[in-house]
Every structure is written in C-alpha cells, then in structure tokens.
Amino acid sequence: MNTVQLNDITLAYIDRGTGPVVLLVHGFPLDHSMWDAQIEALSKEYRVIAPDLRGYGESSLGEVDDAVGVPLERYADDLASLLNALHIEGPVTYVGFSMGGYIGWQFWRRHRDSVGALVLCDTRAVADTDEGRAMRLKMAAHVAEWGAGKVAEAMEPKLFAEQTRTSRPELVADTRRVITEIDVRAIAAAQLGMAARVDSTPLLTDINVPTLIIVGEHDVLSTRDEMRGIAEKIPGAKFVEISGAGHMTPVEVPAAVTHALLSFLRKLK
Ligand code: MLT
Description:
By secondary structure, this protein is of the alpha/beta class. The protein contains 12 helices and 8 strands. Strand 5, helix 3 and strand 6 form a beta-alpha-beta unit. D-malate binds at residues 27-28, 98-99, 194, 221.
C-alpha cells in the first residue's frame, strides 16, 4: 500500500491502474480489502484509488475527541485531501459501500466538483432510528472492553446472506479477521460519527451526475426496498440487485458487482 501524510493522519491507500479515476470507499468496520476483487478487475481500465479510512486498516486515527468520534464530514474531507495530494483535479467516480455511502452523501455535499459519477452500494440515506442510535452509542461506550472480535461476531449474521455463511465460510472468516484487527477506538469513533449523521434524503433529488445503486437481494441492513426508494429519488439513477448476496455484495458475489460497475463506468467514457 502507499501512504501519504494528510494533516493529522497517515492515510494508506491502493493506487492501481491508469485512466479515469474510480474511488472505492469501504464500509464499517472494514478496510480497503473488501474491494480486492474490484480493484483487480477495474484497474485494467481505470485508475483505482482504494483508501483505508482514518483509523482503519493501515491508516492512523489521528486526533480524535473520544466523546465526539469522527463525523462523516471529516472522512469525506480526508478523501478530498487524498485526491488533492495525488494531484487528481478532475471529477472522479465515487463508489461508497454502506458507511462509505454515508460518507458519499457528505462528499457530494462538500466536494461536489470532484464527483463525476456516484455509485452507492448497500447503503442508506436516512438517519438512524432512536433504537439504532442507542445501539451505536452502546457499542462506542463498550467496545474497548468487548474487543473487536465481539463486534465481528455480532455483525456477521447481518453482513452476510445465510447462503454465504453456510456455503462460503472462508469469506466470512476473512472478514472476521479484518474486523478483529480494527482498532477499538476507530470503531467507537465511527459509531459516534454514524449516530450523529443527519437524514440525507433531501439531497437525493438534486444529484445531477450519473448514479448507480447496487444492493444485495438479502441485505437486511440496507434493504432492496429502501435502496430502490433511493434510486427512484435520484434523477436517472440505475438500480442493480445482486442475487444471492446479503449486505457484503462486493465480497459475496464479486463478479456481479464488478460487472455492474464496469457496465456503468464504460458508459461514462
Ligand atoms: C457498514 O457496512 O458500513 C455498516 O453496516 C454501516 C452501519 O453500521 O450502518
């Protein structure tokens, strides 16, 4: 991986291939490796940038107030700083998975000129319910004593389709290993940031770049009905459902996600 010093952090990122830039933004509590299959395939035609968000994978967490965590705006600004540091001036295709999608709404709001196209994968536009927010605050308060392994265990049934868990246990084990190694402070910081996020639904009708919405058939965290609703609000958005996948579509059915991305990207050229 490459690294770059950005303000208070060292950010690690993959930078592979040449051509129009595709920025792949991972979900919670993961790192860039959830995109391994897409990095491999897309980098044959595109310049793929896949960072580890602050505190995740090989990126440092930086100066964080443990009572506030990392607001989603700050992750979005880190991504803009990364593009800036790499002297990428033109608009990019922003691809965000789940928390990477929540960050995507902020990236769109704050760095609109940098967005040529958007891909939202298994994510949500609404804010948390009171119950969802309370669960995040509970995890933020207790993850240091629980350890990241417990977070992995608790999340597994929601991340993967039942079918994946029984027939592809090695995929589930790979993700568990990634989560288990994440710094508990980074987990708490992201939970506080996600808990504080506002409803992004009002932004949707204003999105005026080509947009692709991808969702796993069995996603229970960001359901296909909810994602279809997002697609219906964004003018001209394309909607692709990945059969057999749960929430972790890029990992569970990588070829279908890569195919959807390539079909979309090739039309932008
Ligand atoms: C993710 O996959 O990024 C998370 O499930 C998002 C969330 O906790 O809402």
